[in-house]
Description:
This protein is of the alpha+beta class.
Amino acid sequence: MGLGTKMTKPGTGISIFLVASFILVSILVSLFSSYFFTSTITEQKSQELIKLFSQSDATFQKTAENILNSRQDIYYIKLLDSEGVLQESLGNEDGDNLEMLPIATSTNSTILVGLQGSDFKSLTISTAIWSGLIGLVVSIIVLVLLSFLSNGKSATIEKLIAGMKRVSRGDLATKLESSEAGDDVTMIRAFETYNQMLDLLKRKKEIEIPDEPVFQPTLIEAEDKEEEEETRSRRVIVVVAKIADFQELTSTLDSSEFNSFLADYRKSASSIISNYGGVIEALMKDEIVAFFNAPEEQTNPELRAICSAVEVLQHLATITRERKLEGKIAISGKIGIGTKTLNVYGDHGLPQGIKAVTDSARATCDLAPIWRVIVSSDMYYSVSEYVEARELILGGESYYSIIGVEEVLV
């Protein structure tokens, strides 16, 4: 009995190792397949759009309108200049599962296209089936190894192992005869399970996952109507959030560390702003630019902008405290908010003269001390009932630093 116990332990350890190894391989294969499929489709769509915009003789607005009219899977198209400031925007962002596809142009501007996310449900099901089959293979191997260690039937085991090797090379034609397993019921069942696995693999191979249709935009010429677009006035708010001492940090911190921080911070800040109804218009080096009350009209847009700015700065402060505890260099920030009444187009809500408001918010942010949310006097007076602030004189003008915000429904 003692000898039997000593022989069982190594077999159990080998079985666990094989199970873990095959599960890891299946996960890696699944991830690689999903990544490769997604990258291929996205690159294909990007090339098609680049070709379309570069070959079209029409203006950006006309080309974008034609694409939006002909493609159901494109929700919006935006044009940013070389500094990342929004110049034109068509469509809307109301769709679910949107993916943003950036396209660089020959004039150093950027075109942002909002695409409907691809549905990889069939691919996920196929991957799950493949992983299940691999798990079945692992189970067979474990059963065979345990049987080998207990009974010593190496000849039968070798036949099964040889069959597994053929499967790994893509040979699904050769089955195992149950008669070759002798009178051992366990081995007969293993051979039958092996043959069932071959049948499943053959059926899986015959099932083809339908390819996503090639992105082939068809331009539909819009009717040439000389009708003036209806415009109306609206208060537009721009938030500019900056990382202080950005240039110094890029030369002081390790590039991989700083890029990782910047990506996480931008993702979190963008999520916070979006939760308050803001629209991210630019992510440029040290700053994030967001609009409120445009292109869609909102209730209490000033309060939405201020609340989002305060929460973004609080999030950055939390990150900085954690960095200090880890002995890392602190990263500070500041935010400026600008507002102005602008005329907006009736159809798509694109404000006229938005660059002036953006420049004003950026200038306010540049004057702001670190860890402060700064607003102009007229904006403070419009929300003073819900906001606590301290007056500051910056650049010879009066501004207000937000200290607290009353919890109100925005």
